[in-house]
TrEMBL record:
Enzymatic class: transferase
Native organism: Vibrio ostreae
Pfam families attached to this UniProt entry: RNase_T
Protein name per the record: DNA-directed DNA polymerase
Biological processes per GO annotation: DNA replication proofreading
Keywords in alphabetical order: Exonuclease, Hydrolase, Nuclease
């Protein structure tokens, strides 16, 4: 049975840099659990990576070395987060970035995530083609998605990504694609832009016969 797209976990990492392969670490994780299109739980933790962060990252995120020195270790936080996500499908904006850090931090505690990932940025590029850019903040402004003005903090970004995800599901519903599966969202992410209308027509026909 295909998993419904309206029951997922949306996550976001703040990190010391761009790549765990270069030694960068996660310093904060935020996640929103959606069940039937409603937020049922959230998760937010600072995580002490055991290294100092740069002044740039401090000013970019508002997370200071002093805050991290008081935080739980990355290993403790990731063990908690593993319990939170289980094998639920995950969504992130620019998911390849977050997946790299998720995999790297889980590997440090000898754990793996066995579920599926979808990228809201790739999907938005195909479903919201008239947006000026597909950065999260620009999409939030373009679609007038509710936000509190906080950016580059993990839970705030996860909450905005969750609202963007639900908005795209609503727009699919208007287009006749009712109760889309998570697998369909993954397919949209990898379908060429010119092929999207035909894919949605086929999907609407399938949902009409469910």
């Amino acid at each position: 049975m295909s998993h419904p797209a309206h029951s997922v976990i949306v996550l976001d990492f703040e990190t010391t840099g761009l790549s765990p392969n270069m030694g960068d670490r996660a310093i904060e994780i935020g996640a929103v659990k959606l069940v039937d299109g409603e937020i049922s739980a959230t998760f937010q933790r600072l995580m002490n990576p055991g290294v100092r962060i740069s002044g740039f990252i401090e000013s970019y995120t508002g997370i200071s070395n002093a805050m991290l020195s008081q935080a739980e270790s990355a290993a403790e936080v990731m063990a908690e987060f593993t319990d939170f996500i289980g094998d639920s499908p995950l969504v992130a904006h620019n998911a390849s970035f977050d997946k790299r850090f998720l995999d790297a931090e889980l590997e440090r505690i000898d754990t793996r995530y066995g579920g599926q990932f979808a990228c809201s940025m790739l999907i938005a590029r195909r479903l919201i083609q008239d947006a000026p850019t597909h950065k999260l903040g620009d999409l939030v402004r373009f679609k007038q998605i509710e936000n509190d003005g906080t950016f580059h903090r993990a839970l705030a970004d996860a909450q905005m990504t969750a609202r963007l995800w639900l908005l795209m599901l609503d727009e699919l519903n208007v287009a006749g694609v009712h109760n889309p599966s998570f697998a369909l969202m993954q397919t949209i992410a990898t379908t060429s832009k010119p092929s999207i209308p035909a894919l949605l027509r086929r999907s609407a026909g399938l949902s009409a016969t469910d």
